[in-house]
What we know:
Blueprint: E1 2-6, H1 15-29, E2 33-37, E3 39-41, E4 68-69, H2 73-83, E5 91-96, H3 102-115, E6 120-125, H4 135-145, E7 150-153, H5 156-165, E8 171-173, H6 188-195, E9 202-207, H7 216-222, E10 230-235, H8 243-251, E11 258-261, H9 270-275, E12 279-282, H10 291-298, E13 302-306, H11 311-314, E14 321-324, H12 329-340, H13 347-357, H14 360-366
Parallel strand pairs: 1-2, 1-5, 3-4, 5-6, 6-7, 7-8, 9-10, 9-12, 10-11, 12-13, 13-14
Helix pairs in contact: 1-14, 2-3, 3-4, 7-8, 7-12
Amino acid sequence: MKIAIVSTFYPYRGGIASFNDRMSKALEAEGHEVNCYNWSRQYPSFLFPGESQTISGQSTPTGSEAPLDSINPRTWKNTAERILADGEMDVLLLPFWHASLAPALRSVTRRVKKLSPSTKIVALMHNASSHDGAGVDRWLTKRFLKRVDSCITLSENVKDEVSLLHPDMDCKVLFHPLYDHYPKGISSVKAKAELGIPEDAKVALFFGLIRPYKGLSTLLKAASGLNTSIHILIAGECYGEWEPYQELIDDSGCSDRIHVINRFIDEAELPAIFSASDCVVLPYLQASQSGVVATALHYNKAIIASDVGDLSGSIQDGVTGQLVTPGNSDMLGRAINDWMYEEHTGVEKSYDTIRNEKSWSAFAGLIFKS
Length: 370
């Protein structure tokens, strides 16, 4: 099958780029011919709150493999024609996660469909709208969905959201495959030494981009109630104002046990960060699914998370982690305290089963299966 994927790829940073790179390789391993088309400009600078959209030291991609500019309509038409330059495609696969990209993707699909009516347009919906979005996001997403033939989601929660926007959409639910390309872990002692954390500390990790819906404030409010041997490690770039979080740290009475790496984390840093940690905490206020879960599984780390979105489908309560009520800092603190000092022996065994069920080869084999 000839497949075109229009989305974010290296050298753009972040989970979506990693997902697309790994997915394209898995589809090629299944015997498909895969052509990938990147953005020459993903987000206009005023819509991007971080420091850089690309991996450190890498410039924005250019050339025929990066033909699409999110705010230049002329490139939308040209991208469609570039996709079909070497003949018709069987499938145009469009990973979707942010409504600001919907106009460009919608225009590409419309042009491809006009030039090649037999090409099937498939949307891979990571989210049905932006997590911090407003009504206009839903409107843009709804218009985008009207241009696709079918969609795939990675959780039942997102499928339900898609159904609200497009009740007649042919929608299949798969899963978020587990990353298998990250560097291996290192010893806990070495990892803590690298990060300046005491060797005998228990460490609860908050990892990933810091945005309001991810509930870091809930974790920081729980900090004062944690056992004095428990440290919190925050590793990720803050999208927005850091000051409110710093105020919570300063007021916690235990700021010496809260370690902050407020910047984007390169993959080479993952072994130290995850190996130093005893559990991963996802105090999300809302969620669809989370790539952080896949990373935690890679490093065999238990997960304490809010019971929102599809997080409950990724955690075996009491075995691989614990679920708590979103926004409840007291409950979150108790769960962290309890988990750190109870014996849990089933995490790695349970994760081995999940790794087999949610491999990239399994995902690639199902994505276009009727």
